[in-house]
Amino acid sequence: MRIGVDLDDVIAECAVPYLRRFAEEFHVELPPEPGWHTLDEISEVSQADKDRFRRRTYDGTFFGELEMYADAPAVLERLVAAGHEIYFVTARAERRRVVTETWLRDKGILDHAKAVHLRPQGDFSPTRTLGRYDPTGSARYKVRLAEELELQAFCEDDRLISQELGKRGIRVFLFDHPWNRDVEGPSIERVTGWGDVAQKLGI
Ligand SMILES: [Mg+2]
């Protein structure tokens, strides 16, 4: 099977460390289950400050310091050994390729993938707000790539991306997070981690 694998909050824990930094910087308290949805709920920080924080954080050492989910490397290795093809597909911008590939190499999982795809600069809308997450554009990008690469399954956590991939009949392993609890669909299978993916694929 040709499997697309997202990075942030699928391979690496991303939202929680991001929110922790955010809370520290702006002296706000986080709810018990912080996640990407929390950002919208924090009204005491302006959208402009949120955008600036995101840009600054992503331009810094953040991506290079993320922790990988402990069971990810072993399962990826077993998937490859069982004949599956892995494609890392992230909506991170193409200019993050060096930090992204260096991190994947350091964690020992770069070689499990046939390719690493990041979102090309020309793929971003010129009218988008710099520094703000763009779910619609990211979904368009991942769907296009999934079709080009003829992916049959996709490991994802984003709400919109999962739904759009599912609509096209791609089997989605939706990594369970507080921000995607309401997402469901015929092609969408919720998983609590890599152990579940291994079980579902019989490896
Ligand atoms: Mg993600």
Account of the 3D structure:
The chain has 2 domains: 2-14 and 66-200, Rossmann fold; 15-65, no CATH class. Helix 7 (159-167) links the parallel strand 6 and strand 7 (171-175). It has 203 residues and is α/β, with parallel strands linked by helices. The protein is globular. The protein has helices at 15-26, 36-41, 47-59, 72-81, 97-106, 135-148, 159-167, 194-200, and strands spanning 2-5, 12-13, 67-68, 85-93, 113-119, 153-156, 171-175, 188-191. A 6-stranded parallel sheet has the order 5-4-1-6-7-8, with helices on both faces. Strands 2-3 form a two-stranded antiparallel ribbon. The mean pLDDT is 96. The longest helix is centred in the C-terminal third of the chain and has 14 residues, at 135-148. The chain starts with a strand and ends with a helix. It is built from 8 helices and 8 strands, in the order E-E-H-H-H-E-H-E-H-E-H-E-H-E-E-H. Magnesium ion (MG) binds at residues 6, 8-10, 157-158.
What composes the largest sheet? 6 strands, parallel
Q: Name the overall outline.
A: globular
How many β strands by DSSP? 8
Average pLDDT taken over every residue: 96
Structural class of the secondary elements?
alpha/beta
- Succession of helices and strands: EEHHHEHEHEHEHEEH
**CATH architecture grouping of the largest domain:** 3-Layer(aba) Sandwich
The CATH class of the largest domain is Alpha Beta
- The total number of structural domains is 2
Number of helices: 8
Question: Which small molecules are bound?
Answer: magnesium ion
> Any idea what the CATH superfamily of the largest domain is called?
HAD superfamily/HAD-like
Q: Over the alpha carbons, how many angstroms does the gyration radius reach?
A: 16 Å
- The side-by-side strand order for the widest beta sheet comes to 5-4-1-6-7-8
- As for the CATH topology of the largest domain, it is Rossmann fold
Helix content: 25-40%
Question: Spans with pLDDT under 50 lasting ≥5 residues?
Answer: none
